[in-house]
Design a protein that fits this description.
- The structure is a single chain.
- The chain has helices at residues 2-10, 20-40, 73-77, 80-110, 115-145, 150-165, 168-171, 178-205, 210-239, 243-263.
- It has 275 residues and is mainly alpha-helical.
- It starts with a helix and ends in a 12-residue tail after the last helix.
């Protein structure tokens, strides 16, 4: 809804500092959602499974579920799996942030769309990303119910989403038109669909240290994304085109998929029986 709010409040107006008003409106909506979130929370949302119980789905993961004897946090992060996750989160976050941040300029300056049209399209783009995010989880669950291993279903869905983001290579050669916009919607669905897969992979790494693992990887994600944003801007200044940067950004999740496929280390831990 944010692009629509911006359009509604800023269309045809050029007063200095006007951008603050949409920020206040959108921020206020966030405060209302925060209040609703606290109302909806229940004590059961904070319960954790017994450490003596086997991991959910452990019998079907082919040894991919984290074990109860994970040891220290340092032992967890100095593993091949963690190294793979560093590559994955750096690539998918950079891809998501570059496409999200530069899409309006790509449409306006790169393809000649008016600002209002670009903002309206942004709303459709974010709807497409929501569909991709929910669809990735639904597809993984569907595959598991039909006999795929848990990790295998996650990896397959991740690969499909990575292939969708790589369509930016095609987008870079398309002129202004419906095909260009349609492919961007598909790219957006793939770009956000990568994230539920990634967060599922972190659960295969550790349950006991889940918060610290995702927090550290989140730091890696943002530290790696910033230099690529500067590189993208440098490329635009040099080539006077957004095409090359967009194409390369969409390929990054494919690179991460190769690391996942080649380097993810299988575990031989067996689930413990319940006494």
């Amino acid at each position: 809804l944010t692009p629509l709010v911006m359009t509604w409040m800023l269309a045809g107006r050029t007063e200095p500092g006007l951008w603050r008003q949409p920020f206040l409106v959108i921020g206020s909506l966030g405060v209302l959602w925060l209040a609703a979130w606290f109302v909806l929370l229940r004590d059961s949302d904070f319960t954790t499974p017994s450490t003596n119980a086997p991991e959910p789905g452990a019998a079907r993961t082919g040894g991919d579920a984290p074990s109860d004897g994970e040891g220290s946090f340092w032992r967890v992060i100095f593993t091949r799996r963690f190294a793979v996750l560093v590559v994955i989160v750096a690539c998918i976050n950079t891809c998501w942030q570059i496409i999200r941040a530069w899409l309006p300029k790509f449409l306006q300056e790169g393809r000649g769309y008016e600002e209002s049209a670009a903002l309206y399209f942004n709303s459709f783009y974010y709807i497409a990303t929501d569909v991709g995010c929910l669809g990735a989880g639904a597809m993984s669950l569907w595959l598991v119910k039909r006999g795929f291993t848990v990790h295998g279903s996650r990896a397959f869905v991740y690969g499909c989403c990575a292939a969708l983001t790589a369509l930016t290579v095609v987008v870079a050669f398309l002129p202004k038109g419906w095909l260009l916009l349609g492919l961007f919607l598909v790219v957006g669905a793939g770009a956000l669909g990568l994230f539920p897969c990634y967060y599922s992979f972190t659960q295969e790494l550790s349950t006991r240290h889940q918060g610290k693992v995702t927090g550290l990887l989140g730091t890696v994600a943002w530290a790696s994304s910033s230099p690529f944003q500067k590189l993208f801007g440098w490329t635009v200044d040099r080539t006077h085109s957004f095409d090359q940067g967009m194409a390369l950004a969409g390929v990054l999740p494919i690179i991460a998929f190769l690391f996942l496929w080649l380097c993810w280390e299988p575990r031989q831990d067996k689930p413990k029986s319940i006494p």
